[in-house]
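Input chain follows. Return structure tokens only.
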Amino acid sequence: MQGTRVASRYAKSFIDLATEQGVLEQAFGDMKSILAVCKSNPDFVIFLKSPIIKTDKKLAVLKQLFEGKLNKITDAYIRLITNKKREIYLAEIALEFINQYKENKKILTAVVTTANGIDDVIRKKVMEIVKGVSNSDVMLEEKINASIIGGFVLRVGDKQIDASILRKLNNLKQSFKENPFIKEM
């Protein structure tokens, strides 16, 4: 809970700063990059959270990792939170920044999960369906999960459409368990 509150406050302050400086879009891209690094490399997150490693070492690694890839405002902000010993929340701050950015810009995230991925035609149809339901811009996130066998699962906010073969098989299995037929003797 504490980490979420801290991340929310730091993300809000960074959104305000980036908006004031006119670099909100670049900051959004930077935070997506930082979050991608944190998600793809759990050792990096453990490194940031380590109390044994000194701040100057963490700053050196962050500089080497992100040098020339981030906006100067984002770079300065990361140095600031590291100097304040808040680098342990970097992944949470990046995630919260992205969420607050989407909320401010009224962007919905639609997550479509399929067994093998989707092509451009289906991607376009999904975007049209989601845009037709809401008045917001839509960001499509694609996931692949072979266990659903076929079909798709579409989630937008707290709503979900599950048209997967796995769900249909589970429904069929459940109906066989209920056995509405009476055995003859």
